[in-house]
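> tool_call: predict_assembly(chains=two)
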Amino acid sequence: MPQLNFIQAINSALAEEMERDPLTFLMGEDVVLGAFGATKGLIDKFGAKRVRNTPISEAGFVGAAVGAAMAGTRPICEVEFASFFYCAFDQVCNQAAKLRYMSGGQARLPITFRAVFGAMGGAAAQHSETVYAQFLSVPGLKLVVPSGPADMKGLLKSAIRDDNPVIVFEHGGLGRLKEEVPAGDHLVALGKAAVKREGKDVTLVAIGAMVPKALKVADKLAKDNVSVEVIDPRTLMPLDEETILGSLAKTNRIVVADEGHLRGGAAADIASMVAEKGFDSLDAPVKRVASLDVPIPFSPPLERAAVADEARIERAIRELLGN
Amino acid sequence: MDVGKDKLLEMYRSMQKIRHFESSIRDLAMANEIPGFVHVSIGEEASATGICAALRKTDRITSTHRGHGHLIAKGGRLDKMMAEIFGKRSGYCKGKGGSMHIVDFSLGILGANGIVGAGLPIATGSALAAVIAGRDEVSACFFGDGASNEGTFHESLNLAAIWKLPVVFVCENNGFGEFTPMQTVTSVKDIAVRAQGYGIPGHIVDGNDVMEVYQYATEAVARARAGEGPTLLECKTYRWEGHVVGEQAFLGEEAYRKKTEVEEWKRKCPIIRFHQWCLEGGKISEAELKKIVSETEKELDEAIAFARSSELPDVSEVTDDVYV
């Protein structure tokens, strides 16, 4: 199996899917050059018709992706940083998410949005936000948050083939993370969580960049004979409730770790689902680990203070287990 | 321009259908027989008809919250439209869209849209799809003078211009954005001049003259189909009714325009004007035009009866069609 990093995994998923379907095309800010390297070289393979630099005008080109999808093509639309979605909220939330429903099922919107998110070291609030929670209350979208190269490739390929609008959130801090990625047509189903590590004392649901951190914490706690089961939901919409509740039924304790904010965040959403549907399995209250409710600051020590980290995950687990 | 008799009859029928449909909707709304907000386009029949007459069935349109006329001009069925506005299962969107969101993909109608300016990037993208797929389809985008102040207007014209996309941007300038006169909120007197800022042709068109609209539309569509890029047409027209049916109840009469102004525009009725033009030189006989009116009345009566007798959606359908 080839070793790929996150960026290479994205690049190979895009190339394979564009190869597969001539109606698939790529549009977005600086996709020709590939601002983060993910789309690098695709123009040489697929030409200027199918790899299009857009002007910096998110409402215009995100809306154009919606129209292109409704008119029978399969756009992959890159919004460089996820915070820029705010400039195109109508096109994502009022148009892409709703037009199938509002048209009584006539519209088909096979759009894949890709965007980099998360704190990545001194980018400040307008380039560091974890925005997927903003879309959790918008029915009609699918939300994907991969945590490593193999899942990235498989989930992105599934997203591109999906006939619904899917947003794939790519954490900017995971770019150089390398792992083995299955060769060939590697697909990961949307809506299926992964058990990243089995354990029996506590379930740790970790999202996106929290997954590698969660695994490190689990390794560390194992030395103290604490067995942590790490679940990566991989997609927040749809959410694999069954896997999460199944794990809870085994461990009877649960921590949800996310880089988003505490209030109204993805961790809050999962925690409330667990409280409602898994109450009988709980031996202790559900715990959330999330970022502080402040805009992500610029200065490195402040950024580290704001964002959820390994120490906070570890502390939450120890508190939950009373040790 | 030389236009065949069949085309003239088709255009006349379209204008009559719009007028009758919209008048009925106004009356039904005032009688509280239909739910929600409705926005009718009485007085604006020529722009919808002239543009769509220049399009093929496989071409696509996007429309606005005031969209019934565009949809009828593109071939939308009155019965399914009416049923949708009644919120019935037999409507175009199974009762989930309503007046502001009617869609018929089989006719290239990508939808009326409740968000002002939202259709502009969608039509631009629809034109992009034609280029990607290698099909010579054109997209026409209806929007109002109000939408020309939205960011999406500017972003879409720029995008369509740089990529030379086959799209025709049609501003129906009826003088008002909701209840606000256009000249108090818009930096230019004519929206068409904004085309210059994007390096594309822009034309001011008499929006009450269906033949003039048709002529400009034909040229813009040909240009788009030839790969020469977008055109902005500004059809100057007027809405006889308010922004939303029933607005007098909360605004009062003459809240933002004088009755005399409305009367003045009624004298420029696009249908009477076209009617007289058709009769001149014996292009069409009075009897032929009258026949179209009576056929339209019958079709409309049937559409209302269909809508009234159709079933409401079953509540079990509420979760259908969120995802494919």
